[in-house]
């Protein structure tokens, strides 16, 4: 399917971009038209991504749907996009979640609907752009561009401390990405000493990166890695997350948890590992330790939260710890697990945020202690919350298990980490996940009804069920038949691992198969 | 029929879906009950047909694998969703679906008029579905699917009456505790799986076991695998140190206690050890650990059972104790004896719980045996079946419990040590005592309840399962007659299972050289002990009730210790739960997160802020000041240039 | 011809410059400050002319014309600003004109 200049990905970027511009021409009084239009545009993007999925050939290891147009010829930067098996999953996740979040905020977003929809679509452009870029310069542009709509979404439609949260989010991320920018430029200049021209073409840099002198490579790796680690967020760079999540509107939280965090882990897989394999393997133990601290720490802190949304936010720290651990275990099982876990986390945490948002819309409180005994008042909601919680805690048969199992299994046999200790500590996160989710569930849903106003709660309405059902279908699908998704990323994951381990500079022996 | 074994899994799932989705619309209890029970009943028939088909096959063709689809595959890992039907799994399948069916039927009567009748049956069916996956799974991962699945159902069913109080907390707390403690076990099980995959490059039972047979016994790896798996088993099967959830699990409706927390789920750990017998047999040190843990659990649970007053608590500790026996059997390499006890225990313990349910039903949710008494005449069917069950569990000669328990004790003596046997007998003695204490306090003596309760016999839908289980408790033992009575290879149960355990037994070299005389002697000792303590219980609780209160006053400290279950819950709470909670909140969240990390972040911001505030003082707004600075700057620059020449 | 040595011109120029710079730094009246700036410009002009005639190069003289032109333009703008400020603040004391601070 490799075609020189296939424009499908470009169309995928253009749909939400042009769509968002189109929205500007609609009178802002016509809110329902704007809502429908935004939803329709996002849905259109989803349909197009399905077309891409259908045409995608999982048997191929290289990039597909490549589209390359020279952009800034002076510094040899081109608009260069393409996807492999890893990015297609994340693109599908993005285009899947965007219409859902837009649909879900029909009631909860009441002011500035037009601007909100506009920013959400712009955000989608940025997110898709990050996942399709094959040029570091272009990647950087999308990476930064995506911050802006998110900044406004948190800052305008957020909670009480939205300004603090949005600025914190922005500066945290900005800090990391500036380091990355320096490295990108350095890398381009370094490439020029070989090829004669400055370049930011990822495919060329794949050949050059591993050859960067070791001492410099360490700095390069770290500057890329810190930028991604902040986004993940890896312990101890995580404190922007609870604030951003709690203050963001539901749609923002869902996108933030569902897609934005995945950019960090995606960046690690796409850039950190193949570009600097030697440093990546050297740092793997340290980073894995941080990831494991994140798993346990995130879970423990989640356990004692009093605010439901904050609890889910900290649980993300824990879940993403698994993903990072899997990536740095560098075995096929673990990286495959990480890739699928990125999708899983998007679905299950997305669902949790949606549910918390739904109940918040009704009661305007997220304090756990303000609830109790709602199981008999709103059984459907309670069931949905249970389902999402179970998925999040990795119950076999649901999606979370597939990812966690593969990650833990893969890290256990990892030649890079080469110790059981990592897995043993990481696996304890499985216990804590049950603790914090079930404890929250018990306090919110079970027991006696403590507050009179809860009696008048209304159960999920049709629109809300329609939002949740697609997510739940995928949760079950990945849990029962993950082959559909694992098959997509298999070749690409192997390519990445080969790039790292079969490198003359890395002195790790490839695992016995 | 074996090829359709997946029906035994699928049907309960269908039942769950129907009752779960449409249950609240159906409203008719009969229809819901029939859907719930019949799916399990048909599953039982399928299992039975498969069993007979296996019987007709030669021994070496009895193993069948039914593959459904490829589940998880990544890298070298390839997990198929497949079911393994062999002698072991079919026995378990028959127990689960058979006893499960009876309990489903019983529940129609017991749960009558409950507002969430449909939900109860949906959960029960889901449980059977998960349990069948656990039993039939062809690899560790499918087993784990069932393993966690039954844990979930256990959680849902313990917390079924989620708005009720239970002891100091609520039922949902008990449910959460069960799930979390089980998760700790699952954590061990997961690690065991990973180590197996690392060692054998597969998670498929047959591949792993055949490789294990060939691998030399290289101590540590097997030791770790066995240890990790055993941790998993202690969680699910309520052994020391993870037994604490089972007594609390009694917060669930009584049929749940019978099905999940007595007959089936809690024996999953035993099943798993039996399934991996070759691995355990290769780790003799862990086998010893298992035997000791099993025995200690049996002993301590029995001591606690002596003084409890809640009828279900007594039965719960009795279950823990009996599970200990099963692990003792596993630990000494008597795998088929252990599974045999799983079966007989399923009969009589399910019967005891259902009987208890019948009593609780009659007494309007009163569970304290101090408020029973003289119920014999009100509920004759319950009484008779309860007596049979109590005799069976006490090891009364000729009943099922007698054969299975004595086989375990005999094996403990023959392949373990006299000490194991002696503690086992002591436990058996206590078992007989507390069971008959319970029986006498409930059915005999003065009526200690208020008479407006009007106790009555339960309806037929509840008593018929009791009677069937009572019959099974009587005759169930005869398929496993010990060799002493039935001659060489006369133990049908053992020879049925022997193909499964033969390689493990070969590795352990368990066949010792003890004579039949010894076996009969030991058997007589244990019968005498059982009868003696039954008489003691009879004497104390019907003739001289004051002895009991006197003794408890005399040994008040010990009594208190036992009544409070050795304070294990409190110790766990104080040493693990509280420190984790407080530490997470006070240190990790409030200090590490908010102060240190966020403090650093915000500190960096405010540092920049403060520095800027300092520097901006230079912007005085006085033009001449700026000019002056410029001049100074130029002067310095000039000096610099001149000096550098 | 009796030639005045170049040092005399340069010392005068330096003196004028020093007077100018001191004036800029210490006087408070904006007009005076402005005049001092002109003085500094003219001291530069003097130096330029001196060197031009000393070296026999006309470029310096041409340059002086440029400086004068620019100075004229500048003084026009500068005076306009001062007047505008005076209209606003009724003072040309530069110590009172310090709104461009932190």
Outline the fold blueprint:
The complex is a heterotrimer of chains A (513), B (645) and C (102).
Chain A (H helix, E strand, L loop, with lengths): L7 H16 L7 H25 L8 E9 L4 E7 L1 H24 L4 H20 L3 H10 L1 H11 L4 H34 L6 H7 L5 H18 L8 H8 L2 H26 L1 H27 L4 H22 L2 H32 L15 H14 L6 H14 L7 H26 L16 H19 L2 H19 L12
Antiparallel strand pairs in A: 1-2
Chain B lengths: L6 H20 L2 H28 L7 E11 L2 E9 L1 H24 L6 H20 L3 H19 L6 E2 L2 E2 H30 L4 H10 L5 H17 L8 H4 L5 H10 L4 H8 L1 H5 L2 H22 L5 H21 L3 H28 L17 H15 L5 H17 L1 H26 L16 H16 L7 H4 L5 H17 L7 H28 L1 H10 L1 H8 L4 H48 L7 H21 L2
Antiparallel strand pairs in B: 1-2, 3-4
Chain C lengths: L5 H21 L3 H26 L3 H31 L13
Describe the structure.
The complex is a heterotrimer of chains A (513), B (645) and C (102). The model of chain A is unreliable at 507-513 (pLDDT under 50). In chain A, helix 3 runs antiparallel to helix 11, helix 4 (113-132) packs parallel to helix 11 (250-275) and helix 14 (332-363) runs antiparallel to helix 15 (379-392). Chain A is mainly α and 513 residues long. Chain A has helices spanning 8-23, 31-55, 85-108, 113-132, 136-145, 147-157, 162-195, 202-208, 214-231, 240-247, 250-275, 277-303, 308-329, 332-363, 379-392, 399-412, 420-445, 462-480, 483-501; strands at 64-72, 77-83. Chain A has a domain at 281-513. Chain A starts with 7 loop residues before the first helix and ends in a 12-residue tail after the last helix. Chain A is globular. Among the domains of chain B are: 344-555, no CATH class; 570-643. In chain B, the strands form two sheets. A two-stranded antiparallel ribbon of chain B has the order 1-2. Chain B has a two-stranded antiparallel ribbon with strand order 3-4. In chain B, strand 1 and strand 2 form a beta hairpin. In chain B, helix 2 runs parallel beside helix 4 (117-136), helix 15 packs antiparallel against helix 19 and helix 23 packs across helix 24. Chain B starts with 6 loop residues before the first helix and ends with a helix. The mean pLDDT of chain B is 88. By secondary structure, chain C is an all-alpha fold. Chain C has one domain: Helix Hairpins (Orthogonal Bundle), CATH 1.10.287. In chain C, 76% of the residues lie in helices and 0% in strands. Chain C contains three helices and no strands. Chain C has helices at 6-26, 30-55, 59-89. In chain C, helix 1 runs antiparallel to helix 2 (30-55) and helix 2 packs antiparallel against helix 3 (59-89). The longest helix of chain C has 31 residues, at 59-89. The radius of gyration of chain C is 17 Å and the shape is elongated. The model of chain C has no long low-confidence stretch (mean pLDDT 89). Chains in contact: A-B, B-C. At the A-B interface, helix 7, helix 12, helix 14, helix 16 and helix 17 of A face strand 1, helix 5, helix 6 and helix 25 of B.
